[in-house]
Amino acid sequence: MRRTLFELSAQDAVFGHFDAVGGYALAARRAMHIFHTGPETWKQIAVGQRKWANLNPAAAMTDRPMTSEDYDRSGWLAEPLRLLDCCLMTDGGRAIVITSAERARDLKHPPVLIMGMGQDNPSCDIHQAVHLAGPTGAKRSIKKALETADITLADIDACEIYDCFTYTVEITLQDYGFFSPGEGDDWFKDGTIEPGGRLPVNTSGGQLSEAYYMGLTPLSEAAMQLMGRCGKRQLGPETQTKPPEVILCSDNGGILQTHSCVILRRS
Q1: Mean per-residue pLDDT for 215-222?
Q2: Which of 65, 120, 185, 201 is least surrounded by CB atoms within 10 angstroms?
Q3: Is the whole model's pTM more than 0.70, yes or no?
């Protein structure tokens, strides 16, 4: 019999496992052991994405800068994840329109084209997971997407990553192959993902600092960036970054047990 989320939570609660934050906290704790990552890495993600949100007038955190000290002072939700490691809870809506390339040429804004897609689901239930911290479905997903698009990671100008938690961003980029296990802390240093960085990530602020609209948060931001509709946060001269031609988007669920990615390009 299929268990409901309430039944799953009730059965796991006696072991201190409360819904998604508990599951991702377990994954993050395991990653601290096997990948030698931790809060110093995740802090760079949270602070970096907040800098993008501060350029986004539609972001929930547009007028709330974050410092390293702010991160360190934020309370624990489920160790090792702090409040500022966790996505926002928002109410609202978001939509994208998908049509043929031929039809899109007649629309108001320049179209954005889908280059490649990939999906992989290591298991349907966290209890069946072989590796709690990873590898996730990102590894096979990116392989399929890159093959379909006929490009390599070197062709990616920016990433819009599903960021329910800071650790999700790290493990996704790691499994995509941007850096090897254990190299995350060095890779994120010196503003890699921030305005002016060499690989911008979650340029709207993401689910951590803009709004939580599930997979539509990264997908809609990628489309708008490629259309050139992002104002002060627009990739290019405005943010001292490369004008984007190709952007990689991700989605994730089931506490790292399902994954999909989409590669978009400017028309």
Answers
A1: 96
A2: 65
A3: yes
Report the number of distinct structural domains present in the chain: 1
pLDDT tens for residues 114-137? Answer: 999 999 998 766 666 666 776 789
Residue 255's domain is classified under what CATH number?
3.40.47.10
**3-class DSSP state for residue 14?**
coil
Beta-ladder partners of 262: 117, 249
Measure the CA angle with vertex 43, ends 232 and 52; round to 5°: 5
Query: Residue 202 in contact with residue 193, Cβ under 8 Å?
Result: yes
Q: Which long-range contacts (CB under 8 A, 24 or more apart) does 122-131 make?
A: 122/256, 122/257, 122/258, 123/254, 123/257, 124/254, 124/257, 124/258, 125/254, 125/257, 126/23, 126/254, 126/255, 126/256, 126/257, 128/257, 129/255, 129/256, 129/257
Are the CB atoms for 140 and 118 separated by under 8 Å?
yes
